[in-house]
Amino acid sequence: MHDHRKLGRELGLFGTDPLIGAGLPYWLPDGALVRHSLEEYVHDLERRAGYRHVHSPVLGKRELYEISGHWSLSRDDMFPPMDVGGEQLVLRPSLCPHHALIYRSAGRSYRELPLRIAELGGMYRSELSGVLGGLNRVRAIQLNDAHVFCTLDEVEAEAAAALALIRRAYDALGISPARFRLSLPDDGGKYVQGDWDRAIGILRSVLDGLPYDAVEGEAAFYGPKIDIQIADDAGRESTLSTIQVDFHQPAQFGLEYVGADGAKHRPVMLHRSIIGSVERAVAQLIEVHGGAFPGWLAPVQLRLLPLSAAELPYAREVLERCGDLRAEIASEGSLGARIREGRLVPYQAVIGPREAGNGLLSLRLRDGSRLDAAGAAEVLARIGAEVKRP
Fold first, then answer.
1. What are the residues facing 133 on neighbouring strands?
2. Which domains occur in the chain, in start order?
């Protein structure tokens, strides 16, 4: 594996500046392209799995987090409140209270359940400077988050479906989990009262047949969770994806649905994140692939290399025909230097007099192999099919 902090800067994917602050990286154009491609993939994956996407503000009243339990049990991880117009507003440490209120915004029937709400939203953690590092541990987080509101009878199947979705995404991204972990409470932590045994039993059933470690002291304050662990280039583990069963917040926010019997019932809230934070996911992708991203994620998918100024007009003509392909022309410097510079680009096309004169493209792949010259339209169509988002 590779150190994403070093390689990410070498490749011009992200950077930092002391005037912005520690743990607050910015994204450069190529990094923003990788991030956007990842976000589009997850959005489409969720949509096809029956999730409906929402947007909610990154601020909330302190009272919101007092009700959810974050203020009393996770206040040390939150930024201080801001006094605005006689109210105290805080940067949210989590999206789940907002989604609980979105659920509560309308009357719900059992026919609507399971209701799957997803969002790629900002959240903030007041991390100490000593634990910050690259994209893995930051203070401003873009979280791929979702909450499923369902009946008790549905929660195990929904949790299993969420785990299957996570594993499918890992296959598409080329990520291998370091391990699966069942995160449990311990005797000394800050946890709410609730039906922990039932929640733990549900997650154990979901993990049945998979190797996993049960670890005490790693549960969320409101419930146990399945954590999918990844490892960086130094072997340090962190959590990327998670599935959590929550009986606490539906009760705190008074969430209800009308059952088939006409009576009101309390839903279960399943927390689920496919790739966790976008920052940590991109860090893992940089390290796993060494910057040689799968074609659909690569910031540049095709690089056109005219041998001389005489071939430059044809290269520009090809560039105009690339459509949705992310392509560029590299015409400065020796051909060998340009090929080495683009070694991580999935496809490079050397354009000489033969190609320019006959409307051809000759492709060179990342592994150094070359494909026979073919018509430009055929080659562009082939690349487009091969870099299509999974």
1. 137
2. 4-289 (3.30.930.10), 302-386 (3.40.50.800)
Q: Can you read off the two tokens belonging to residue 6?
A: 């070093």
Residue 377: phi, psi to the nearest 5?
-60, -40
- Has residue 35 got a pLDDT over 90? yes
- Spacing of C-alpha 157 from chain mean position: 23
Count Cβ atoms within 10 A of the Cβ of residue 93 and give its class: 0-12 exposed, 13-18 middle, 19 or more buried: buried
Which whole-number Å values give the CA distances from 325 to 241, 299, 317, 347, in the listed order? 30, 10, 14, 11
List, for residues 189-239, the tens digit of each pLDDT value.
Answer: 789 988 999 999 999 999 999 999 999 999 999 999 999 999 987 788 899
Is the separation of the CB atoms in 330 and 342 below 8 Å? yes
Q: Distance (Å, rounded) from C-alpha 154 to C-alpha 162?
A: 12
Three-class secondary structure of residue 107 per DSSP: coil
- pTM confidence score: 0.93
Cβ–Cβ under 8 Å, residues 238 and 229: yes
Sheet containing strand 87-91, strands side by side: 59-61, 87-91, 82-84
Which segments of 274-389 are extended strands (E)?
Answer: 302-306, 327-329, 347-351, 360-365, 374-375
Q: Could you tell me whether strands 347-351 and 225-231 are parallel, antiparallel, or unpaired per DSSP bridges?
A: unpaired
Cis previous bond, 93, omega within 30 = no
Identify the pLDDT of residue 388: 93
Judge contact between 160 and 44, C-beta under 8 A.
Answer: no
Q: Which residue has the tokens 């399971």?
A: 114
Nearest of 85, 294, 64, 80 to residue 169 by alpha carbon: 294
Band the pLDDT of 1: cuts 50, 70, 90. low
